[in-house]
Amino acid sequence: MEPTPQEMATVGRALKRLRSSPVAWEPVTTGGHTPARRWVVTLEDGTRAFVKVATDDLTASWLREEHRYYAIMRGAPFMPRYVGWYDDGRRPALALEDLSSAEWPPPWTPGRVEAVLSALERVHRWPVPDDTPSAADPRLELRDGWDEIERDPEPFLALGLCSAGWLERAMPVLCEAAHAAPLEGEALLHFDVRSDNVCFRPDGTAILVDWSWTSVGNPLLDVAFWLPSLRAEGGPAPGVVLDATDGLDRLAACAAGFFGAHAARPPIPTAPHVRSTQLRQARTALPWAARALGLPPP
Asked: Do both 41 and 114 map to the same domain?
């Protein structure tokens, strides 16, 4: 893969304040679930930077949203260092600290889990930028997963996560719990905590990348929606990470419905790995929700 002339020009402008031009481009082909193009570029003076370039209107809107938080929150210890930005009105480019030499999970160790929890505590204490969207906004569909599955259960059942009989018996409890999930709150949320969005500096500090889903709400949301993927990657069970905190059973139902409903949707042509990731999350989220709500195992 080679950069296009337009990408080279856009990235060059994003890095303009460094007063050095890119001389080498290394494509980043791992991680990431959007069709944005990713590069690690080396500049004339040896400096390296990670850059993301939008490829369509949707990735452009996500990059603009992500840039907003990097620009406002620059210097936050739980974020990569902000390097630069350029928006030509069509395909913007965001430049950040190169973290390719950092350690990326899995595997998960108790120390790494604790480092992520510590980073999230700092995130949740950080001042919330103006106009940050609420996690309770209906557009995020956090409470709607089980409603979607109830309307048309066949795509969900085809995932093999439970039987039709179990789903029919459990559905009233799951729906009620998801609708009662405590999403509201005043904490800043990263809201997309997964292994491909977390890395560790040499001192063990956790860094969170990809801030396009930043929201404000209940701080438990960041952890509750991370736990299914953590368990799926060999990490501890949700009950080991979090005690039976008030509302956690309803958040577990909310997460299981969200991941289950999305995993059952048609594949996304421009993001082919999203549904398989959501299915892995649903596989661990559903048994967790069942245990938390006192339901039989699915």
From this structure: no
User: Using CA atoms, how far apart are residues 82 and 94, in angstroms rounded to an integer?
Assistant: 9
Residues written for the chain: 298
Which residues are within 8 A (CB) of 89 and not within 5 positions of it... i.e. 6 or more apart? none
Count Cβ atoms within 10 A of the Cβ of residue 85 and give its class: 0-12 exposed, 13-18 middle, 19 or more buried. Answer: buried
* Tens-digit pLDDT profile for residues 8-66: 899 999 999 888 889 999 998 776 677 889 999 999 999 999 999 999 998 999 999 99
71 and 120 belong to one structural domain? no
pLDDT one-digit tens code per residue, 227-238: 999 999 999 988
CATH number at residue 260: 3.90.1200
- Neighbour tally for 120: CB within 10 Å: 22
Do 61 and 164 belong to one domain? no
Q: Are residues 240 and 199 in the same domain?
A: yes
Cα–Cα dist 115/171, whole Å: 36
Structural element, H or E, at residue 274: helix 274-293
- Secondary structure of 22-86 as H, E, C letters: EEEEEECCCCCCCCCEEEEEEECCCCEEEEEECCCHHHHHHHHHHHHHHHHCCCCCCCCCEEEEE
Q: C-alpha angle with apex 57: 54 to 59, nearest 5 degrees?
A: 40
Q: Where are the alpha helices (DSSP H) in 180-273?
A: 220-232, 238-241, 248-263
Query: Are 9 and 144 in a shared domain?
Result: no
Where residue 244 falls among pLDDT bands split at 50, 70, 90?
A: low
Alpha carbon 211 to its chain centroid, in Å, reads 8
Which residue bears the tokens 């005690």? 243
Residues 123, 66 share a domain: no
41 forms beta bridges with: 25, 49
